Structure formats: structure tokens, C-alpha cells
Amino acid sequence: MGELLVDRPAEAVARLTISNPDKRNALDHPVLDAITAALAELAEGIETRCIVITGVPPVFSAGYDIGGIPDSSFERDAEALVAHPFAAAMEAISAHPYPVLAALNGHCLGGALELAVRCDLRICAAGAKLGMPPAKLGLIYGHTGLQRFIDVIGVARTKELFLVGATHTAVDAARMGLVNDVTADDELEAAALALATEIAGNAPLSMKGNKYAIEVLARNPVPTAEQERELVELRESCFASEDFREGISAFSEKRKPQWRGV
After folding, report:
1. pTM, two decimal places
2. What is the pLDDT, as a whole number, of residue 95?
3. CA-wise closest residue to 98 among 230, 205, 218
4. Residue 208 belongs to what H/E stretch?
5. In angstroms, rounded to a whole number, what is the distance separating the alpha carbons of residues 262 and 205?
6. Exposure of 126 in the CB half-sphere (CA atoms within 13 A)
7. Does residue 85 or residue 75 have the better pLDDT?
8. 38-67 residue pLDDT tens
9. Torsion angle of C-alpha atoms 50, 56, 57, 58, degrees rounded to 10
10. How far is it, in rounded angstroms, from Cα 37 to Cα 40?
């Protein structure tokens, strides 16, 4: 069975590494449950302000671990994996208050690609391949996952991804909008860490507030009156915060701000 390795490679940055090398880092119950638990733990306070999710080389993840399920229990066990621990882990990524960065150090397929799309940003090694094989497997993908792809790459590209079922190069994935940036394979780890460090140095209230507002607007293109009030109140709250005054002072004094999260 797989496991999730957790380390802190930089200030306010936590890295979650999927480790299931015998199955190409497949997403099994232990890995998915560990992702959900780790994100809940790392959501507290301001000690962790950016999460990096990656895989043990040479791949990011081959997706769902359904290959070894016996025929006698396939229907029950395959649906159980996809419906509960996978869905819970995906929602934990989407709901995490701080930015989550996927560092795609190798092939990223199937459910692992949804995991990447659930993250706020994606940086990809040039040699990686990305793909969605449901059309090749006879799988009808979950509507919540499909919605995430539509949000990120639009309807036309989502149809291309799921109806053709082709595997894409990192450059093609960037052209489609699946990833934000592509780096040389041997530079991926350093580039991801540099980006995560830059993100983690930003104001925690700002990151949490902006991420939340973007999520609300993405889910509700025409916000309700209540949502409008909530977003206005959220914006107004920053003017009374100590961190906003600290950010202005630090910018004027050309020094590193000392964030408190209040």
C-alpha cells in the first residue's frame, strides 16, 4: 500500500509526496486518506501558507488504484474507492484555505490529473505526460470532477480530454491550460519550491480571502445578494487588519513583512 510523505522544505511550506512506487504512485485508500488528514491538519493557523503536492520519481501518479480489484468485488470496491476516499481528498484540496501547488514531476494520469486540477497552480516537468483515459476504460467520470476541468480548461478542451482520451505532452498541456508552467525535468523540484516559497511569503489573510472569493465566483457566475454582501464584507475586513497595515509599512520600508494573520 502507498503512503504520503510529509516534509517542510522551506519556511511556511509543506510538501506532500505520494509514495506508492510499486504501483506508479497509484492513489489507493491509505494515500487518499492521508491527503485528507494532512490537509486538515495543515489548515490550522498561519504556520503553513502553501502546500506542494508531488510524487516519488519518476512519476507523479498513475491515478486510481483499481487494477488489483478482483472481479468478484470489482463493482463494489471500485465504486467505493472513487466515491469516498477519492472524493474526500479532492474536496480537501479544493477547500484548503491556502494555495496548493501541484509539482508534476512525471506522468500524471486519470484521477491524478483531477488531483492536479484541484490544486490552485500546476507546474510540470517537460518530460511528463498527462492524460484522461476514461474513454479507453469504459468509465463515466464523476460530474464534480468534470466541472473542475470545465472551470480550468473550458468545455471544448474538457470534451477533447475526455472524449478522445489521448495522452498529452507537458507543452500541449500548457497550451490547453492544464498546467501553468513547464520546466526542465531536473529543474522541476527547485522551480516548484521557489514558487511555493514566493507564495508562502504573501499575506495569509489576503491569500485566504482571495482564494475564497475566486472559488465563490467560479461556482456562482452570478452571485446571490447574500454572496455579494459576504464578498464585500470580506474585502472590507482587510482594512481593519493588522496585517494590511504591516504590509503597507513593510512595502514602504523595503523590508520583509512580519505577518500575524490578523
Report:
1. 0.94
2. 96
3. 205
4. helix 204-219
5. 7
6. 6
7. 85
8. 999 999 999 999 999 999 999 999 998 876
9. -110
10. 5
